[in-house]
Amino acid sequence: MKSLVTLTSLCLLASSALAQPSRSEDRYFEGVNLSLGAATAQSKTQGASANSGFAQAKVNYTFALSHPVKLGLTATADLGNARLSATETWAAGNLSEVSLEPGILLISNGLLYAKIGTHRGQYETAGATRSFSGSATGLGYKHFVHGSTFLQIEFTQRRANNVLITTNTQNFTQNTGALLLGTNF
User: Fold this and answer.
1) Which residues of the chain have pLDDT under 50?
2) Residue partners of 151: CB distance under 8 A and separation at least 6
């Protein structure tokens, strides 16, 4: 996780020094954005916890509000499962998260945003399989580095409480950090 944060920080600092905005600051981030990248997650229940990595894809539409405020609507797909233990999996569906993302331009090509949304997943083990859903909250930053290409770093916490597994209930928590490369159309 430290190497991901260090790499992301280095990329953001280096890109700030080299990036030259190619469109007016009022047009950055508006419209459809697609991004793909790597995510690392710490997933846990009351009895188990594990770290895992997987790919993540995002489709976003950002609405133009009064400058410098933006509002995004994002659908996220985890392209792999997260481990809870050697025998337990937090399985991702085709669409694992939908969120509203209010944001503010910090500089003409840099957007800081919050995430408020919902997620769904599936608990899988040899003895039980249960679908569940819950809340997703987080914080992210997008920075255009060249033309319509941007880097995105995002931290998200997903929670689902009182999920019935056989005869007992579990609370699920997943803390995710992601580094993505995207494009704006």
Assistant:
1) 17-18, 20-22
2) 8, 11, 12, 15, 142, 143, 145, 179, 180, 181, 182
